[in-house]
Amino acid sequence: MYGSTGPLAEENLCMKSSTGRWVSGDDFFDRERELKLLELRIRDGNHVLLTGQRRMGKTSVAQELGRRLEIAGWSFLFTDVEGATCPEDVVADIAEAVHPIRSIASRFAATMGRLVGGNVEEISASEFRVKIRAGLSGGWQRFGKELIQSCAEHDRPVLLVVDELPIFLMRMLRDEEGSRRVDEFLSWFRGIFQGFRGRSPVLLVSGSIGLVPLVLRLGIPDRINHLFPYRLGPWSREDSVECFERLAESGRLPINDGVADAVYEALGIGIPHHVQSYFAHLQDFVAMRNLDRVTIEHVGEVYRTELLGPAGQSDLAHYETRLRNALDGDSYRIALEILAETATQCVFTGRARRHLEHWYSPVIEEAPRHIGEALDVLIHDGYLEAGEDGHRFPFQLLKDWWLARFRDHHTPLADRVPEVNRRSP
């Protein structure tokens, strides 16, 4: 149930609370403006890179877009390649997504001959994937092209969503000759889909790690210039409050006036998953205490004891896990320093950046470059945002979580190297 920029549709009057899974249909809190723009781009044959910070609902938007296009006569293919370790896995994952569309699957299976064998209808999607994967050794580029060509020859337009592509690329990047292999894969991927400009299949790529910072770091930004970037932003205060109140109404959870606003104030930003999560924690809080309703005081207590407590750790630890996946060892180490400095000092200033460069230059080669890479990812993925006086956390809950971890274990950068640029702002 992610996102709205306008009035709620009638079908959204009753919604179920959902955390940790993508949603569609009646549980989707409609991002009508975003969906209309994305659908327009897709219908015009534009390949799309769907970006946005963590937990913003990118997968739900992609799934809802596909559902609506299916109603309009499209074929919708969705594959998550987070677990892929090599290009062969990606091709096999796409093949598994294709399997339910028999005409495409049969056409592709015929190109692989005896490598697949048998009637496509007689095997499951997972079995189909295993057979395809076994036949790809040494030929993933040729067979991958045949797979996409089979989609292009389908009698309906096709939307292919490839989710978590950046995680796959980062995993491959850590292997021997990783940079070359990432370049090779992205060049191949780009070449195939550029051949279908203005017609099906249309590609939508998304992921919880930024693809743009990755290709910039590798010096190959042109490998994704066929993708139209579309950034999914947070809910407004109005939308966050409306969603929370609708959840309370649907869940028969009485709330006092101002509770929904207090939830938004506590979070500091309208991240769909965390609005949902806050509601779920409040629902459990009143149920376990047999309370009649939620008050503003309960909002604060749940924030301190639940969201920042043991029950909320899995939600927040996800941010650190994704950050570790997005950066190499030295850049990740520096990113943690930046986040600790920002949480404890409330802002990461230009002076703090110079102190950080001075502090790490003796032990990390090209420290300024690593600092730049870390900041690019932290900004792109929504951990920090730039302001007039430096970088700050837009997400209050994440700031408070980081502060609780490091307030007693972080020495401010200015106290470590006080002689550096003391007169600079």
Give your account of this protein's structure.
This protein has a five-stranded parallel β-sheet with strand order 2-3-4-1-5, with helices on both faces. Strands 6-7 form a two-stranded antiparallel sheet. The protein has about 425 residues and is an alpha/beta fold. It has 19 helices and seven strands.
Q: Please identify the structural class as seen in this structure.
A: alpha/beta
Range of strand content: 5-15%
Low-confidence stretches: 1-14, 18-25
* Cross-sheet strand order for the largest sheet: 2-3-4-1-5
Query: What is the ordering of alpha helices and beta strands?
Result: HEHEHHHHEHHEHEHHHHHHHHEEHH
The average pLDDT value, as a whole number, equals 88
Count the DSSP helices: 19
The biggest sheet, with number of strands, parallel, antiparallel or mixed sense and barrel status, is:
5 strands, parallel
* N- to C-terminal distance: 44 Å
Work out the radius of gyration: 24 Å
The percent range for helix content is 40-55%
Tally the beta strands.
7
Using the alpha-carbon principal axes, give the shape: globular
Ordered list of secondary-structure elements with their pairings:
Layout: H1 32-43, E1 47-51, H2 58-71, E2 75-80, H3 87-98, H4 102-112, H5 125-134, H6 140-152, E3 158-163, H7 165-173, H8 178-194, E4 202-206, H9 211-218, E5 227-231, H10 237-250, H11 259-267, H12 272-288, H13 296-307, H14 313-326, H15 329-345, H16 350-360, H17 367-380, E6 385-387, E7 390-392, H18 396-406, H19 413-416
Parallel strand pairs: 1-4, 1-5, 2-3, 3-4
Antiparallel strand pairs: 6-7
Helix pairs in contact: 3-5, 3-6, 4-6, 7-8, 10-11, 10-12, 11-13, 12-13, 15-17, 15-18
